[in-house]
Amino acid sequence: MKLNVLIDTADILNINNQIIHFEDIFDKKIDVSLQKNNYLKNKTILITGGAGSIGSSLIKHLLNQNIKKIIALDHSEYGIFQLGLFFKTAIENKKLFLILGDIRNQDTINHIFSTFPIQIIYHAAAYKHIAILENNSTELISVNTEATLNILFTAKKQNAEQFIFISTDKAVNPINKMGISKRITELYLIKEVLTKKDNFKVKILRFGNVFNSNGSIFNIFKFQIENKLPITINHKSMKRYFISKFQATKGLIILSNPLFSSGIYILNMGQPYIIEKILFKILQKLNLDYTPNISYTKSKSKKYEKFDEELNFSYETQEKICSECNKINLNNYNLKKIEMEIKKYSQLLKI
């Protein structure tokens, strides 16, 4: 993780010291204002994956709210080091506590919840790199599903108020193992929502690709352009949803309003974009001293890559609850269907 992930200009792409803004590429005007929300006043918040793209952005913007303290957990020593550099003042003022640890370590999780009276959990920690995870099912499910559920049940036991889980459009009709792991986790969380009647809120937020997040296609383009390598695109027609880090962060903060009940929410992603056209816009903005070679890999099309992503299943109906997100109606879910779907996807992961 690089420090520029954390600053106000996080939604920029720096290629050869040339700056491209999110709004230069996408037809979206981003309102970067975020009002103070009374429902966050004096809250103690845990952010897993705190040194990642979304986690670090959450820290920055939550510190501008009236929170009591933030506990940021991450397994990257370098990531924690970088957070310490950037948020030095917040750490000195005991507004931010940094913890190095793996979300799979139950002793670490127990220590956090027994030390801090955590009320809200933003669960951003996950494995997400599709190609890598195709050959690492055991590691994938241990992080994306098993650790998630352990944190959820620990939070309930310790009387937390909300658990907010970041899902993905790739969990909808999933064809890759990362998406399958996220869908299995969604299903377990939905089961929890349908069977429990206490005040503990479990919220799932689905969204698509985040601009210039760690390991995104923009990182790949940057690497290929700066090293004068062929720029690779899977297919001319491939589309993806894209939002800025700030949009994702704002959606998560707004979703933590206790007036929003448990369930599945979909962030307003706008229209999907053709990746080839995004690349052309980037190249038009750059002053390069060579002509890039664009390589289309259609003949090597990967079975785990969709041409178009989806944000909801066909049986999921949506209700608009605010300008940032819609809520899925859970009427078409039942426990039998959930168990059958978990079994089906678990067999695909061979767990």
Report what the structure shows.
Strand 7, helix 8 (177-195) and strand 8 (201-207) form a beta-alpha-beta unit. Mean pLDDT is 92; it is low at 1-8. With 351 residues, the protein is an alpha/beta fold. The chain has 12 helices and 17 strands. It has a single domain (3-349), classed as 3-Layer(aba) Sandwich (Rossmann fold). It has a 9-stranded mixed β-sheet, with helices on both faces. Residues 45-320 form the Polysaccharide biosynthesis protein CapD-like domain.
Assign the CATH class. Answer: Alpha Beta
Q: How many domain units?
A: 1
Helicity, as a percent range: 25-40%
What do the pLDDT scores average to? Answer: 92
Q: How much β-strand is present in the residues?
A: 15-25%
| Count of DSSP-assigned helices | 12
Query: What is the gyration radius calculated from CA atoms?
Result: 20 Å
Poorly predicted sequence stretches spanning 5 or more consecutive residues: 1-8
- The CATH superfamily label reads NAD(P)-binding Rossmann-like Domain
Shape: globular
Distance between the termini: 31 Å
- Reading side by side through the largest sheet, how are the strands ordered? 5-4-3-6-7-8-13-17-16
Order of helices and strands: EEHEHEHHEHEHHEHEEHEEEHEEHEEEH
Number of strands: 17
Biggest β-sheet description = 9 strands, mixed
Stated plainly, the CATH topology is called Rossmann fold
Alpha-beta content class: alpha/beta
At CATH level 2, the architecture is 3-Layer(aba) Sandwich
Organism: Apibacter adventoris
Pfam families: Polysacc_synt_2
Domain Polysaccharide biosynthesis protein CapD-like: 45-320
Family: Belongs to the polysaccharide synthase family.
